């Protein structure tokens, strides 16, 4: 029973950390949740690595590597997801 409880607590901590990371990326980059989640999944939930790519390669490259496309028109920037991408992390389409 003790091991099950420890496992459950660890899972809750992990989920809460993911929620914090998601909120951080959403706030820093002014993104919707699904776009922030796409970036985090692509970078294996490593916020520091994600931010390093942003600083080193820029916003366009950060998004394009994760399968997101920046659309700019009339001084408004928006993102769209590619209709079909291959995920090298979870090996899904």
Automatic annotation (TrEMBL):
Top-level taxon: Eukaryota
Domain E3 ubiquitin-protein ligase ARIH1-like UBA-like, residue spans: 17-51
Name recorded for this polypeptide: E3 ubiquitin-protein ligase ARIH1-like UBA-like domain-containing protein
Lineage per the UniProt record: Eukaryota, Viridiplantae, Streptophyta, Embryophyta, Tracheophyta
């Amino acid at each position: 029973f003790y091991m099950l409880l420890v496992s459950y607590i660890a899972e809750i901590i992990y989920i809460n950390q993911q929620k914090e990371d998601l909120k951080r990326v959403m706030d820093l980059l002014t993104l919707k949740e699904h776009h922030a989640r796409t970036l985090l999944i692509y970078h294996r939930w490593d916020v520091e690595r994600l931010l390093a790519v942003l600083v080193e390669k820029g916003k366009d490259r950060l998004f394009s590597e994760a399968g997101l496309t920046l659309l700019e028109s009339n001084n408004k920037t928006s993102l769209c997801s590619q209709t079909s991408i291959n995920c090298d992390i979870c090996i899904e389409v």
